[in-house]
Amino acid sequence: MSADKYTKVILFYLILAFFAVPHLIDDFLFGIPAEFGLSVHLTQVLSGIFIVIYLVILLPLARGKKAGLYSAMGMGGFLALAGILKHIPLILQPGPYWSGWFSELLIFGLIFSGLAVVLTCLLVLRKVRDGELQSVGP
Questions:
Q1: Which distant-in-sequence residues (6+ apart) come within 8 Å of 24 by Cβ?
Q2: Which of 14, 18, 94, 111 has the lowest CB atom count within 10 Å?
Q3: Do residues 121 and 11 lie in contact, with contact meaning Cβ atoms separated by under 8 Å?
Q4: How many CB atoms lie within 10 A of CB 53?
Q5: 38 torsion bin: left (phi>0), alpha (psi -120 to 50), beta (else)
């Protein structure tokens, strides 16, 4: 196993967290959970669950397992897609978006780092499939 290839995935995954967690707070500040009919308490519990899941994905990823790659790819793809579908249409509307440039930075950072995680995972999985790189296990 080449630690360098997995290190790139882990780096992009951590960059994704850098944008995802502050964006989660931004969602709270601008009432997104209420749009889905969620109470503050339920949203706080779901946020905690999200952070635990995010961290649990890091464990097999750091151990060089394919399950970590698939899980990180799923999380990156989900967050990028959610950013594109929920926030890009709002950003394109006239007027300021939420808190302005910082909220937009979080959205674009979330989308691009999520896509970077997906792409990097796909490249590593391809190398594993072609025998150029070994995975520790499933």
A1: 47, 50
A2: 94
A3: no
A4: 11
A5: beta
